[in-house]
Amino acid sequence: MKPHEPADAPLLQARGLAFSRNEEPVFGPLDFELRPGEALLVLGGNGAGKTTLLRVLAGLLDASGGEVRLQGRPVDRDHLARGSAYLGHLPGHKGELGTLENLQFAQALNGGEPADLVQALAEVGLAGYEDTPARRLSAGQNKRLGLARLRLQSAPLWLLDEPYANLDLDGIALVNRLIQAQVARGGAVLLTTHGAYAAPPVPVRTLALGPSRRPA
Ligand SMILES: Nc1ncnc2c1ncn2[C@@H]1O[C@H](COP(=O)(O)OP(=O)(O)OP(=O)(O)O)[C@@H](O)[C@H]1O
Question: Which of 96, 135, 155, 214 is deepest in the core (most CB within 10 A)?
Answer without folding.
Answer: 155
